[in-house]
Amino acid sequence: MMIGYIKRHKELLQKILSTSHILFGLLIIIIAFTLFPNDSSWGSIYAIIGSLFVICGTILRLQGLNSVRNVLIVGMIILCLFGFFNTLDYIDVEAFGKVPCFSYIKRYGDHTVEYQTLFYKAIQKYPGTKKEYVYIAH
Question: Which residues cross the membrane (predicted)?
Fold first, then answer.
């Protein structure tokens, strides 16, 4: 009787802890995209930190299940977060004219900054002026 209560109490605490990790990670991701400008790399750093919290919370939530299934679920979450970040970044560039947040190379030229991401190249013309605009190079 007492062992069953302790086991249920432990499972409840584990669910609360995992859910709080996931929610905290999502909060960090939302704050990272709204608080930091795209020019700063801090937004992408905090978004990745938030993603790690989401992944850790998911792993805590899945403890005790089949390990192959856990790996598949965590892998799918990682792929979904990766796709979400890249899609959101692409929409920001294409629709709102912002520079990409997740670029791995920045090249500075004459009145241009070129941002290389995994799937596209964005070019910012006349940065810091009134004529500034960003477009995707095809």
Answer: 12-36, 42-60, 72-91
- Alpha carbons 76 and 68: distance in angstroms, whole number: 12
Average pLDDT, the chain: 90
Q: Where are the domains of the chain?
A: 2-98
Q: State the average pLDDT over residues 84-103.
A: 91
pLDDT over 80 (residue 3): no
Cβ burial of 21 (10 Å; 0-12, 13-18, 19+) is buried
The C-alpha atoms of residue 40 and residue 42 are separated, in whole angstroms, by: 5
pTM across the whole model: 0.80
